[in-house]
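Supplementary Data S3. Sequence and structure tokens for construct A.
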Amino acid sequence: MTEFINSIHNKPLRAIAEKVVQDIPVSEADALYMLTTNDILELGLISHYLRIRLHKNIGFYGVNMNLNYTNICELRCPLCAFSRDEKDEDAYLLSHDETEAKVKEAVSFGIDEVHIVGGLHPQLKIEYFEEMLRRIKQIKPDIFIVGFTAVEYDYFAKINNIPLEEVFRRLMDAGVGALPGGGAEIFSHKVRKVIAPKKISGKRWLEVMRTAHSLGLKTNATLLHNHIEDTEDIVDHLSKIRSLQDETRGFKSFVPLTYHDANTDIRAKRASTTGYGDIRLYAASRIFLHNVPHLKALWMYVGEKMAQTLLRFGVDDIGATYHYEKVVHSAGAPTPDYGSESHLRRLIEHAQLKPVRTTANYDLLAGCAA
């Protein structure tokens, strides 16, 4: 421990390292410093120390598909390139037969998981989603379903005029195993009213997640960055996630998402994030969110090389194959719309880590570890 601390020469970072070694949560002031320091190598030493302490030399990845069942959405958020009005020429809604065909094809590729998100479609009642989930489970009973954002669950409760807890219980009974973290965007009210004015508030997002956690559902938490937020907004966002995690222990993974602005009404701060910025954000998140077990860098958002680099700066999961992903690619993400398992394994191996295939609940799959 002494050798590790002595390897940190930057005084504020050394003080942070001392807290980390003693399992003392770092402060919001520490987070602000980490998100603005230019000493990213020593910041990386601290985040990698934590990453190894939590996960040793393992790098996680998954083999899954995305199911974006409709792009029709009441909200039409300025930040979103995916959503459409019902009368738009390229608006769509998947029938159950179409969903079944997509999942069957993906199962033939060997997927373990389905990741489901879509727009807020006013004609879809809860029975549509129950039938969708049951059909997926009939195709492959042991498939793991990560289903619907907090925004969707809140909408399902309102449009069906039933309690939120009932929505969760019914969809859990039909097959949902965990929640994605989408819809969090950034909790700052002043930013949220510009980028997603009709979306549920950050406070409501946290309330929905609290309810999910109380029912035994594990979830992701996300942060959308590189739009119009400032560093203090990011610190506030991280702090609220850490506070709820102290209460519920229900977040399994934190997932920063880089904003892509093509085909949206909100221009990003810059055409792409900087390497410095990405590294600081992920490393600081690993250190600040000491109580969230996993930190995920989605290769489809940050790019393959940056995802690989971030495995040495606190990240332990680079995401999955994501067959049929539509949302981020609608906004101009330049990465392929799916990845092969062999490619993801090579990315992890070339970061000198051991690739382990898993699903969103982080139950390791037998025979898949390197």
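Construct B, processed identically:
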Amino acid sequence: MNIIINNSSIQPIYEQICAQIKESVMKGALKPGTILPSVRNLSKELRISALTVKKAYDALEQQGFVVTIHGKGSIIADVNPNMAQEEKQKEIEKKIEQAIRLARENGMSKEDISELFRLILEDLT
């Protein structure tokens, strides 16, 4: 598995792992039933604490992306299409929020931002 950790990112390492695994699942690169590397192996590969990998796997399990089977490890779950769509929408919301924050930091008013979004939407349709 090709996970890249950015140590200078403000995003916690376990969240970086979660995000990359979720992205691979959404793109179909990780299919349901795929066995993830063991916590120990992935921690060695990434040169991070096993507890960090465990935290990532636990978060993925809570979100429904992974199922952990005692003795077999963590396995990619059969993701509900509605859940996949919700994850995509969350990512879009996050990017729109970042764009709005950037606009506000650069002095744009709510009205200016709304107008800019309206113009962009018109151009794209």
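The chain has a mean pLDDT of 92. The first strand starts at residue 66 and ends at 69.
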